[in-house]
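4.2 Preliminary Data

To establish feasibility before requesting continued support, the project team ran the inverse folding procedure on a target of 269 residues. The structure was first converted into the token representation described in Section 3, and no sequence information of any kind was made available to the design step. The complete token record follows.
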């Protein structure tokens, strides 16, 4: 069966689509066929990124890997129960079609709580939660005591992941490898950075996730969107010079992929 990777966080702007694109590029460069689903049915940032990539390929003739895409939509049923049942059928059918063609399936979830997102979290073999390195973003994972900084208990997103884990367990599936990706970590030893790190360390032991460093705050990640490129494509396309900052960002991508321990995916790219 295809290995399912889900990018999930109920807060927008955490870097889910950027992470999805770079994971796709890394996995594809290891020779795997990758299936993709964008569950942000309103903004569709992940699929917009891929559309820009497709246009770049047509415009320049560069041979870059592209994934298999499955497009979903909301049910038009009036009844809530009927709509939910139809969306479950559509989601399961999309996964089945991709499973027949692909070694990996990448699912980018919206920055909100939807039925599709719930189903995706329950299907995940690897769950990646990108978060900006701030107490505002941490609040989706857990509630903190404002005076002591101690974790009081899980918050809304962690509770949703817990329910998804229960569904997996009831289906006889092994628990997902839950990885929290700390993006935009400050280079300074700031108080906020220390508090977030301490809180993540405490919470990870209580509810079972791993914490790994993610991507820094770099202009290059925003610049590549319109061309649909990733840092792993720049050497082949010659679109941008690999300066020191870009090389450092590329190394961040390598470290993220390495830390995820995906089957059959190395960091020789």
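Position-by-position output of the design step:
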């Amino acid at each position: 069966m295809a290995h399912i990777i889900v990018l999930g966080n109920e807060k927008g702007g955490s870097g889910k689509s950027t992470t999805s694109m770079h994971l796709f590029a890394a996995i594809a460069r290891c020779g795997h066929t990758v299936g993709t689903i964008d569950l942000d049915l309103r903004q569709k940032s992940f699929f917009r990124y891929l559309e820009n990539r497709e246009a770049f390929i047509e415009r320049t003739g560069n041979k870059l890997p592209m994934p298999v895409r499955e497009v979903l939509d909301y049910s038009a049923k009036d009844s809530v129960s009927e709509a939910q049942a139809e969306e479950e059928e559509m989601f399961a059918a999309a996964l089945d079609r991709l499973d027949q063609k692909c070694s990996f399936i990448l699912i980018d979830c919206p920055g909100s709580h939807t039925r599709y997102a719930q189903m995706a979290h329950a299907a995940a073999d690897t769950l990646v939660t990108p978060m900006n390195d701030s107490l505002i973003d941490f609040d989706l994972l857990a509630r903190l005591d404002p005076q002591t900084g101690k974790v009081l208990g899980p918050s809304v997103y962690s509770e949703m992941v817990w329910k998804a884990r229960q569904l997996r367990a009831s289906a006889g599936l092994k628990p997902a490898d839950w990885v929290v990706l700390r993006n935009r970590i400050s280079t300074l030893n700031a108080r906020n950075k220390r508090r977030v790190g301490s809180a993540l360390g405490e919470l990870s032991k209580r509810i079972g996730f791993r914490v790994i460093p993610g991507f820094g705050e770099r202009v290059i990640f925003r610049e590549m969107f319109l061309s649909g490129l990733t840092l792993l494509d720049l050497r082949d396309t010659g679109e941008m010079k690999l300066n020191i900052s870009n090389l450092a960002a590329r190394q961040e991508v390598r470290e993220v992929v390495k830390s995820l321990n995906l089957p059959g995916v190395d960091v020789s790219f």
